[in-house]
Amino acid sequence: MIGLSPNGVKIMVATQPVDFRRGMNGLVALVASALAADPYCGDVFVFRAKRCDRLRCIYWDGSGMILATKWLEAGKFVWPPVRDGAMQMSSQEFSLLLAGIDGHGSSETR
Q1: Residue 45 has pLDDT above 50, yes or no
Q2: Which NCBIfam families does this UniProt record tie to the protein (predicted)?
Q3: Angstrom distances, CA of residue 13 to CA of 35, 74, 79, 82, 110
Q4: Considering the entire predicted model, what is its pTM?
Q5: Burial environment of residue 55 by CB neighbours within 10 A (0 to 12, 13 to 18, 19 or more)
Q6: pLDDT at position 4, please?
Q7: Which end of the chain is more exposed for a tag (fewer CB within 10 A), N or C?
Q8: Number of independent structural domains in the chain
Q9: In this structure, is residue 79 part of a structural domain?
Q10: Residue 109 belongs to some domain of the structure
Q11: Is residue 54 part of a domain?
């Protein structure tokens, strides 16, 4: 999995839902255009589906691009309050999000 350290990797969350038919190339282009960031910088870029039950991450590990998808069988991911563009998330918040736990209220999303 993606090694996240508090000192190194930034986790950037796109605030608008994306069409999950986009593949890796589409998400890389979205990072460059909509988020105004370098997709090859080593940061993790997180995208959500409109229904909020799926998320996708892209990450450059130095030798290739990683695309990871997770969906919840029941419930929805609880996203932090969002603004336009992108926002940064801590590694703790990201871990809670991936686990399906509300980082704001500490309850499971199911």
Answers
A1: yes
A2: IS66_TnpB
A3: 9, 22, 10, 9, 22
A4: 0.84
A5: buried
A6: 55
A7: N
A8: 1
A9: yes
A10: no
A11: yes
